[in-house]
Amino acid sequence: MISKNSRLFLQSLKEEGIEEIYLPSTALIITEPTICILSKASSPPEIQPSSPISSSAANSLRDQMIDLRSQAFGCTRCGELAATRKSVVFGAGNLEAEVVFVGEAPGKDEDEQGLPFVGAAGQLLTKIIEAIGYTRKQVFICNVLKCRPPGNRTPHPDEIINCQPYLKSQLALIKPKMICALGNHAAHTLLGMEKPMSQLRGYFYDYEGIRLTCTYHPAYLLRNPEDKKKVWEDMKRMRREIDLLMARDPMF
Question: Which of 23, 49, 181, 201 is placed for a possible disulfide with 187 were both Cys, Cβ 3.0 to 4.6 Å?
Answer without folding.
Answer: 181
